[in-house]
Design the sequence.
């Protein structure tokens, strides 16, 4: 009856080969770049040549020199040190938001995919959240509760949650029709246990991919908030607020915007490339079913 | 007669360095006006052979590595892609198992046939239209103007397959390849489609390569038969010779595995204990929506039956007859709209989820698709242990029991630690049965439990069910569309049509001497009903 077996078995081979031999240079370069950024952020106190917030009015807007490789800003602070410290905030926000959004989104999505009543209510709230521009929502939350790294994290997390919820919900909706879920039901397995054991594992692969996009988007949103002055307080250097401060000196010294901007772009590009590579490997259509 | 297709020593291998050969040097020929059946179980390479002929092997995964395929003398393996594309519509064409996926869902079916004509002929619009209408009439569709203006989803499965046939034959190809074209259809529709293919073939003199796993279909339409097994050609012979005196052991085994349509001898009553009593069961779908009133469908209407311990009741019927609905109501996977379901004297039809818990133990189910009924991420042992652990059995004890059960269903104890994907379809179905038995149920509901399996595996699983029943004295509610299977395993049979039981009684009476016209129509449509495959002889006129 199912006579496609040999063909399907054949189709799988090239994907296996693909995954084994690597999928091009881009993801490897991306991984190296991201690793460098992470290491720089962790060891920032050891590798930075200067204190990122020590001001020195005498050394304002200096061009690159041996002492200040990227020059100094309007307050005489070392730009290189500030960009390296800026990576800390970006990565903390990126990681924090990803963990929060995935954990909360997963929980809400599982419940909403499995219980019809909850679904109706939860999804309308999610639709409402998605109807608001995420940056505006974040600005509103930050101005309501004051700017700190925690409020910024919360403010970026909330608009990200619906994207995770919708993904998880759609997976649960299709997985719960699988006969093995009905089998579990007839074995007397309780609802929470069915969710935990039979439905949740289906979401892991697509969630891993989604998480990378959430992470990239969170880092970008944080930079936007900082740039608009609604982010972490300006005492802490972030890529966004370095660029914001540099805006008025743009014609005088464009490199003040160039370097943090470049760091931001490289970071986000790397994460997205890794996400694409993860998707190629984990794509549910390439299937776990070895039948 | 002129030879249309000549496949010589064809070898197809996985497209990778050192890739395994999936078709190993097979040869076959088809002449004008001849129907040749290619039979084999899954993985035999019969579909690969047909795809190779059409030049449709999936690129980058399978490729022909030797031999020749000649269509009227032209070697297809040496053809360019453009030449093949041209040949595919004009000289050879193919129809597939699932017409819904083979048709474009967003295009009217009439336009889809016109497209074929436009691509390969220089006919004017009016001529095209006339030809399409003529073809639709030829494939026996009613009201052709309306059908031509319909989208695939608006047609029934049988109608869609007729459209596929019309599309395949509109350019009058020399060769028609039919890859399991009736497998997804009900028996009565299957009969019509088989008849249609035969009729058109006689009219146009087309050579037909018919790929199937169903010996019944073979006996109905084939002139000659080729039997394949794991990429090798086992034997070939005119159909009558093959069915009467197969030369090879494999063919003999394949034929013997086909269940007989003659009901098995009645068994004596083992027990009088009633396990399941269904009274006036009704299941409605649709109806009172919140804002709209959609028409309501009666998926099951006034269904009554009783099942005693150690007995098997079969529910047979075509798709949409409500047989699965009844099974799922009994299992309380869906809620019945009205009526009673009594298990061991208690009505469970209206129990809540928690109220059901004590009764779930008594009812267990084996599902149709063995590839989807086991969670691929947990080990076989975990799957089997799940039920008992839910009811408080200590894990160590449940584990030991799981291994015992695996042995009972004919698998090694070591299977417990492995994952479902490491097993074949038949083995997985055994695991699913072991999982159901772990609960020590009174009633086993088998919903098309052997329909997805090859005949030889099917016979083994049926034997297993019979053995388990004898040993444990459980009752089995066996849902199937296959009258042959029902005849061999059931003590009683209920025939369902459009939600209603039209006939119920012991198997010998219902299938041997049917009273209702629908039962008779079903029996009449069963392919190969005049042939007793296991006996290698026609059914004696009894």
Sequence:
């Amino acid at each position: 009856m199912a006579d496609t077996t040999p063909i399907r078995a054949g189709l799988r081979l090239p994907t296996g080969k693909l995954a084994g031999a690597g999928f091009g240079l881009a993801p490897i370069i991306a991984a190296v770049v991201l690793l460098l950024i992470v290491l720089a952020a962790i060891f920032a106190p050891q590798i930075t040549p200067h204190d990122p917030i020590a001001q020195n009015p005498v050394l304002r807007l200096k061009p690159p020199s041996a002492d200040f490789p990227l020059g100094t800003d309007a307050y005489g602070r070392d730009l290189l040190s500030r960009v390296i410290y800026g990576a800390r905030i970006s990565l903390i926000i990126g990681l924090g938001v990803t963990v929060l959004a995935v954990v909360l989104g997963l929980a809400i999505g599982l419940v909403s995919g499995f219980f019809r009543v909850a679904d109706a209510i939860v999804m309308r709230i999610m639709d409402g959240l998605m109807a608001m521009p995420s940056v505006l929502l974040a600005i509103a939350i930050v101005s309501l509760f004051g700017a700190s790294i925690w409020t910024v994290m919360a403010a970026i997390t909330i608009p990200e949650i619906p994207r995770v919820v919708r993904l998880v919900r759609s997976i649960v909706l299709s997985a719960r029709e699988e006969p093995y879920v009905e089998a579990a039901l007839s074995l007397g397995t309780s609802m929470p246990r069915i969710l935990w054991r039979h439905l949740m594992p289906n979401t892991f692969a697509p969630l891993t991919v989604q998480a990378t996009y959430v992470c990239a988007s969170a880092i970008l949103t944080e930079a936007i908030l900082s740039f608009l002055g609604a982010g972490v307080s300006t005492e802490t250097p972030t890529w966004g607020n370095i660029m914001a401060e540099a805006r008025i000196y743009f014609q005088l010294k464009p490199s003040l915007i160039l370097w943090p901007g470049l760091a931001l772009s490289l970071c986000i590009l790397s994460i997205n490339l890794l996400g694409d590579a993860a998707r190629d490997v984990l794509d549910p259509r390439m299937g776990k079913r070895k039948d | 007669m002129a030879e249309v297709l000549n496949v010589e020593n064809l070898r197809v291998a996985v497209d990778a360095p050192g890739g395994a050969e999936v078709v190993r040097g097979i040869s076959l020929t088809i002449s004008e006006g001849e129907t040749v059946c290619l039979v084999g179980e899954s993985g035999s390479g019969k579909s690969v052979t047909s795809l190779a002929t059409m030049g449709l092997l999936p690129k980058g995964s399978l490729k022909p590595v030797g031999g020749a395929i000649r269509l009227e003398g032209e070697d297809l393996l040496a053809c360019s892609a453009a030449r093949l594309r041209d040949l595919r519509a004009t000289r050879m064409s193919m129809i597939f198992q699932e017409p819904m996926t083979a048709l474009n869902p967003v295009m009217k079916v009439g336009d889809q046939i016109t497209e074929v004509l436009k691509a390969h002929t220089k006919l004017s619009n009016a001529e095209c239209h006339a030809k399409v209408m003529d073809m639709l009439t030829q494939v026996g569709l009613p009201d052709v103007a309306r059908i031509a203006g319909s989208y695939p989803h608006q047609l029934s499965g049988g109608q869609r397959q007729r459209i596929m046939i019309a599309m395949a034959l509109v350019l009058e190809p020399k060769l028609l390849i039919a890859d399991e074209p009736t497998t997804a259809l009900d028996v009565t529709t299957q009969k019509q489609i088989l008849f249609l293919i035969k009729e058109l073939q006689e009219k146009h003199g087309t050579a037909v390569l018919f790929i199937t796993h169903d010996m019944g279909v073979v006996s109905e339409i084939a002139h000659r038969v080729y039997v394949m097994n794991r990429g090798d050609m086992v034997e070939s012979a005119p159909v009558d010779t093959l069915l009467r005196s197969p030369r090879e052991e494999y063919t003999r085994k394949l034929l013997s595995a086909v269940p007989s349509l003659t009901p098995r001898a009645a068994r004596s009553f083992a027990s009088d204990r009633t396990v399941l009593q269904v009274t006036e069961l009704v299941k409605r779908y649709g109806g009172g929506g919140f804002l709209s009133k959609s028409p309501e469908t009666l998926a099951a209407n006034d269904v009554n039956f009783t099942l005693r311990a150690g007995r098997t009741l079969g529910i047979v019927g075509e798709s949409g007859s409500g047989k699965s609905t009844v099974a799922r109501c009994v299992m309380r996977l869906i809620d019945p709209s009205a009526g009673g379901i009594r298990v061991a004297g208690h009505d469970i039809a209206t129990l809540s989820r928690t109220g059901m818990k004590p009764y779930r133990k008594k009812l267990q189910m084996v599902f149709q698709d063995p590839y989807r009924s086991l969670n691929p991420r947990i080990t076989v042992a975990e799957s089997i242990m799940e039920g008992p652990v839910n009811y408080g059995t200590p894990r160590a004890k449940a584990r030991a029991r799981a291994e015992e059960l695996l042995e009972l269903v004919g698998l090694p104890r070591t299977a417990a630690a492995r994952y479902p994907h490491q097993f074949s379809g038949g083995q997985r179905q055994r695991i699913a049965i072991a999982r159901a038995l772990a609960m020590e149920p009174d009633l086993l509901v088998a919903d098309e439990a052997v329909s997805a399996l090859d005949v030889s595996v099917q016979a083994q699983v049926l034997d297993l069910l019979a053995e388990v029943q004898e040993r444990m004295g459980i009752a089995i509610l066996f849902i199937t569309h296959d009258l042959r299977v029902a005849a061999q395993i059931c003590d009683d049979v209920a025939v369902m049509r459009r939600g209603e039981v039209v006939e119920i009684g012991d198997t010998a009476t219902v299938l041997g001497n049917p009273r209702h016209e629908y039962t008779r129509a079903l029996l009449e449509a069963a392919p190969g009903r005049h042939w007793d495959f296991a006996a290698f002889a026609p059914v004696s006129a009894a």
Residues 1-21, 286-291 of chain A have pLDDT under 50 and may be disordered. Chain A touches chain B at residues 1-7, 9-14, 17, 178-180, 182-191, 193, 197-198, 201, 288-291 (CB under 8 Å). The CA atoms of residues 43 and 133 of chain A lie 36 Å apart.
